[in-house]
Design brief:
This protein is α/β, with parallel strands linked by helices. It has one domain: Rossmann fold, CATH 3.40.50. The protein contains 10 helices and 12 strands. Strands 2-1-3-4-5-10 form a 6-stranded parallel β-sheet, sandwiched between helices. The chain has a two-stranded parallel ribbon with strand order 6-9. The chain has a two-stranded parallel sheet with strand order 7-12. It binds NADP nicotinamide-adenine-dinucleotide phosphate. The site of NADP nicotinamide-adenine-dinucleotide phosphate has 26 residues, from helix 1 and strand 4.
Length: 282
């Protein structure tokens, strides 16, 4: 059991709260930071949060994708420039960084799964602010590992699963988009893999794609969930155009995860296995 100290930024968010539990139960010491007591845009708070730690994991982010469209300055500050500053401090203090990013750095126009070598082309302010953070972190020359995740859900956050269950409770028929394709990914599984990265002999740097195995649409995912939970509601497929939103979403969010599977030395669970585990834990 390791007794290394890990700084978790955004520790009370959906991913951060599962990560806290995973690291604690694996014997790590953790130092947790989040709004309102900690603001990643405050450089001195950021430096204080990292002092004396062996690693920092950044889960803090401006994640309201639609609101970001009219709040570009703040989104860039939180998701972009602060991540660059984090890199500068990490370089100075010689602390390796794991930073969480997103499939929204891509435009989703590619047919096949995205690899780490594909060129990002964000469709939204959120996506471009996250890409800015990735680039500034890489430019900082810190030991940085960027994990891009997608379609995440967990017990401590509002996400597609909680929203769709709320809809099903209040309506007897619902429409769900079937033209966005990706891999629903449980934050517990992300947390376990972040823990496993900390345990590697050599800290991996660069970009890694992380998602459940297999691809599905939001519609198929909702159908699977309702069947598993015994929720009886009529469900119909529709296109994203029927739900106009301020921010554009990529239609193809498929990730090629072979690079991280090689790093971890194991296959990642399928999206159905992850969803079954989420339901079992709920
Ligand atoms: N959810 C997804 O589907 C998804 C998909 C791809 C990538 N990601 C990435 O996954 C990572 C974790 O996100 P999540 O899903 O856990 O979202 P989340 O629940 O919104 O967590 C983000 C956390 O960061 C905090 N935060 C926001 N602004 C901050 C600031 N200025 N200083 C310090 N903390 C701040 C938030 O606090 P408040 O709640 O008080 O704002 C929240 O606790 C993020 O990097 C996100 O971009 C998420």
């Amino acid at each position: 059991m390791s007794k290394e100290t890990i700084t978790i930024l955004g520790a009370n968010g959906m991913l951060g709260s599962d990560l806290q539990q995973t690291l604690l139960s694996s014997g790590f010491d953790i130092k947790c930071y989040d709004l309102p007591d900690f603001d990643i845009t405050d450089t001195s708070q950021l430096e204080d949060s990292m002092q004396g730690s062996d690693f920092v994991i950044n889960c803090a982010a401006y994640t309201n994708v639609d609101k970001a469209e009219s709040d570009e300055i703040v989104a860039n500050e939180v998701n972009g420039y602060s991540v660059g500053k984090l890199g500068g401090i990490a370089k100075k203090l010689k602390i390796p960084v794991i930073h969480i990013s997103t499939d929204f750095v891509f435009d989703g126009k590619k047919e096949s799964p995205y690899t780490e070598l594909d060129k990002p082309a964000p469709l939204s302010i959120y996506g471009s602010s996250k890409l800015l953070g990735e680039n500034l972190l890489l430019d900082s020359d810190a030991d940085a590992c960027i994990i891009r995740v997608e379609w995440t859900y967990g017990k401590d956050g509002a996400n597609f699963i909680t929203k769709i269950q709320d809809f099903a409770r209040t309506r007897n028929q619902i429409k769900v988009v079937n033209d966005q394709i990706g891999s629903p990914t449980h934050t517990v599984e992300v947390s376990k893999s972040l823990r496993d990265i900390l345990l590697l002999k050599q800290f991996p740097t660069g970009i890694y794609h992380f998602a459940a195995n297999g691809y599905t649409s939001r519609f198929e995912m909702a159908k699977y969930l309702f069947e598993k939970l015994g929720i009886e509601v009529k469900i119909f497929p529709c296109s994203s155009d029927e739900f106009p939103a301020p921010a554009k979403r990529p239609l193809n969010s498929k990730f090629d995860c072979s690079k991280i599977e090689k790093l971890l030395g194991r296959k990642l669970p399928t999206w159905q296995e992850m969803l079954d585990e989420y339901i079992r834990l709920a």
